[in-house]
Specification:
This protein is of the alpha+beta class. It has twelve helices and ten strands.
Length: 253
């Protein structure tokens, strides 16, 4: 009887190795660890899932590409679901998640999360049929926070985790999928209003935040329930609110 779960681990490892530009048996045994079993590789070869070249290079076949893609997609969507929505330690949970869901449920999770492009580690999530089907809608509906006009409220779609811990740090600041955010100012650094609290951020961090495009360019204090903070001083201008102490803090960074 085929050991599907064990085979999945090897297909997943080969996909990750390919992303890193590795294709040797040594790399595979190192990736799998002490539990490496040559018999599983023999099974995958006999099922035409994996091929080994004469010089020892290992690669996925066209047939093996299909389940490997699904496994990686499930794992990384699982990480985003646990990290962004459930707020737990996503790595261990995602390992089980990848073996549990069929394609239909995976697409439902993907739609729920807003078709994220990357996992919390910053690795690409393979597109599903739902992503391709709704590509035009997604492109017109989700925009980088840097494109949002100042003073306009939007709901967060997702946060790209290009650095370890970024998504968790954003969560502490109330920046998570479904949360409300507005840009108060963009210069000399960004100041965001996140569920009523003001946060100063650099361009790199703000560029990792994506929001659902608002249906109308209404000020945050009109569209959302949370008030603008009293520590912001100055007049409301076309580019947003000027915060003197926030600007000084940004310059010191």
């Amino acid at each position: 009887m085929a050991r599907h779960k064990e085979q999945d681990e090897y297909l997943e490892a080969l996909w990750v190795m390919r992303e890193k530009g590795k294709d040797s048996m040594t790399s595979l045994t190192s990736t799998i660890g002490d539990g490496f079993d040559a018999k599983i590789m023999d099974e995958l070869q006999s099922q035409d899932m994996v091929k080994v070249s004469e010089d020892g290079r290992i690669s996925l076949t066209e047939k093996g590409e299909i389940p490997a893609r699904r496994i990686i997609r499930a794992h990384r969507l699982g990480e985003r679901l646990i990290c962004d929505v459930l707020g737990g330690k996503f790595e261990a949970g995602a390992c089980e998640f990848e073996h549990m869901l069929d394609t239909g449920l995976l697409n439902s999770v993907c739609i729920l999360l807003g078709h994220p492009k990357e996992c919390p580690h910053g690795k690409p999530i393979p597109e599903g049929e739902c992503c391709r089907r709704n590509a035009k809608v997604a492109e017109s509906s989700v925009i980088p926070l840097t494109d949002l006009e100042t003073g306009v409220c939007a709901h967060i779609a997702y946060v790209n985790g290009n650095e370890n811990g970024r998504v968790q740090k954003m969560g502490v600041l109330q920046i998570r999928p479904g949360g409300k955010v507005s840009v108060i100012q963009k210069y000399p650094c960004y100041v965001l209003d996140c569920e009523g609290g003001n946060v100063a951020m650099g361009n790199e961090e703000v560029s990792s935040i994506y929001v659902w495009k608002p249906s109308g360019a209404r000020p945050c204090d009109e569209e959302c329930t949370f008030p603008l903070s009293n520590d912001l001083v100055g007049k409301k201008r076309g580019w947003g609110f000027k915060s003197r102490w926030k600007q000084r803090a940004c310059r010191r960074r």
